[in-house]
Design goal:
It is a single chain. By secondary structure, the chain is α+β, with helices and mostly antiparallel strands. The chain has three domains: 144 residues, no CATH class; 231 residues, Hypothetical protein af1432; 77 residues, no CATH class. It contains 17 helices and ten strands. The strands form two sheets. A five-stranded antiparallel sheet has the order 3-2-1-4-5. The chain has a five-stranded antiparallel sheet with strand order 9-8-7-6-10. A hairpin with a 2-residue loop joins strand 1 and strand 2. It starts with 7 loop residues before the first helix and ends with a helix.
Length: 486
């Protein structure tokens, strides 16, 4: 807990500055050199001052951005480059940060410096090099030392499902940018709903999709996180936007170029415009639909296709949207609509959209059923693979989302409760995400949410924490959106 009478950012910056000066000095002189005495005293004092505000220290860094006890530090301009250089040096040794359990002594800091200076440098980032090196550093620390190293997380570059970020970007900056784009996408969907798409795609809508494509290429994690922004109102708008986000992400996973991803995003956003002709009350019916209502719903692909045909041109982008509008509910092999007079293999875009809108629909509360858990939805989609859904695309989507998708609420075998914050980067360990803890083993809310990497092991080599089960966040009063984006 942070003391209210202490400027947390000020004492936090002082702590980081003094630790940074100490490490830089130790890189010039060995850890036992008298030249370090002054820096050691100042670092011990800064640590003690920080412990007046908190009862535990957790520092995690990525290049020019530092998070202290879950909060981003606002660094002075003069501190940015030295801190970035320090974090790169630590990352080379497999270290992304460290924790301090109690007030420290100069000898504790000397032990930390000795371990770091004698530590191995990461030569190959494949597998779990950072985790292995951080574990080795911790084993080199004397028993009882309150300082523990945390392995570097892949926060700079990567792919979907690997916790990837645009290089050098702050987590908070990317989250803010993603939320801003989400709001713009909702407005774009509303514009299309009002115009019916009969006048083509407005330039503003195209620009929104272009920005989404760029962000998926730079930072897919938060785009995937946006599908957890679920509300009871405006289901149709949110469903189209979520389908668009997931379709772009899946398209990139498949290797589509920027131009194709733009067309795919536009196709996903517009493919259900024909639903405007369906009475909204039909979509809220809790029981089975009447024959008339079902027929109205199953006519919407034809209506959507007619709206696309009303565009001023039939260029490649429009033709792709036309096929997606007509085919996305048709089914890969069986079970869809509208009926055709013979074999009709759907376009790739149509098959992608069928997969992504199925996932969003299953994981959203509807009047006739509660939302499915993400792993339940993926299991159902695997059952549909080869029938209603393209099996190759379902497999790619499962790989994209991961065994425990971003934002999944989980109970750990320690009794702690949290949400998946970073999906595993190592395909050999699909059950080892980074989890943001929200409640302790007694069920009490954690006021300063902590990040735990489920790859961490105890001294006996066993994993320190494991996922026991997934749960519905709403049932436990958890706000996944806040956990991911706050």
């Amino acid at each position: 807990m942070i003391a209210h009478n202490v400027d947390f950012n000020t004492v936090g910056k002082r702590f980081v500055y003094r630790i940074g000066v100490l490490i830089r000095t130790a890189r010039i002189h060995h850890a036992g050199n008298k030249a370090l005495d002054f820096s050691l005293r100042m670092a011990v004092g800064a640590t003690g001052a920080l412990f007046e505000a908190v009862d535990r220290i957790e520092l995690l860094g990525e290049e020019k951005v530092l998070h202290l006890n879950g909060q981003r530090l606002r660094l002075d301009r003069a501190m940015v480059e030295p801190i970035a250089e320090l974090m790169r040096w630590l990352r080379e040794r497999g270290v992304g940060g460290f924790t301090v359990a109690r007030k420290i002594t100069a000898e504790d800091l000397r032990a930390m410096l000795t371990a770091l200076l004698n530590g191995e440098v990461v030569e190959d980032r494949a597998g779990q090099a950072e985790t292995r090196l951080a574990d080795a550093l911790n084993h080199a620390m004397p028993a009882g030392c309150p300082i523990r190293f945390m392995p570097a997380l892949e926060l700079t570059t990567g792919t979907v499902g690997a916790g990837g970020f645009g290089e050098g970007h702050s987590v908070q900056v990317n989250a803010s940018r993603a939320l801003h784009l989400y709001i713009r996408a909702l407005k774009a969907a509303d514009v299309l709903r009002l115009t019916g798409g009969t006048e083509g795609i407005p330039r503003g809508v195209v620009r929104v999709i272009q920005h989404l494509v760029e962000m998926v290429a730079d930072d897919p994690r938060y785009i995937l996180g946006l599908i957890h922004v679920k509300h009871e109102n405006a289901y149709d708008l949110r469903h189209q936007v979520h389908t668009t986000l997931l379709s772009i992400a899946l398209g990139q996973q498949l290797g589509l170029g920027r131009g194709a991803l733009l067309d795919l995003g536009l196709a996903a956003l517009t493919c259900n415009l024909g639903m405007l002709s369906v009475d909204p009350a039909v979509l809220e019916v809790e029981g089975p639909l009447s024959e008339g209502a079902r027929a109205a719903v199953q006519r919407h692909p034809l209506t959507s296709a007619r709206l696309v045909l009303g565009s001023r041109s039939l260029d490649l982008s429009t033709r792709r949207r036309l096929r997606a509008a007509f085919e996305s509910d048709m089914g890969f092999a069986e079970g869809g609509y509208p009926a055709t007079m013979g074999p009709w293999p759907p376009h790739l875009f149509s098959r992608i959209i069928a997969v992504t809108e199925t996932f969003d629909a299953l994981t959203t509360d509807r009047p006739w059923r509660a939302a499915w858990l993400a792993d339940e939805a993926l299991a159902e989609m695997l059952n549909e693979a080869g029938h209603r859904l393209d099996p190759t695309l379902v497999a790619a989507f499962v790989n994209l989302i991961g065994r425990y998708p971003l934002g999944t609420a989980v109970v750990l075998d320690t009794g702690e409760l949290g949400v998946v914050y970073l999906t595993p980067r190592d395909p050999r360990e699909p059950a080892r995400p980074v989890v943001r803890l929200l409640a302790d083993a007694q069920g009490d809310r954690i006021l300063e949410p902590q990040m735990v990497d489920l790859r961490e092991r105890r001294e006996d080599g066993a994993y320190a924490r494991n996922i026991a089960q997934t749960v519905r966040a709403e049932d436990l009063g958890l706000d996944v959106q806040r956990a991911l984006f706050s």
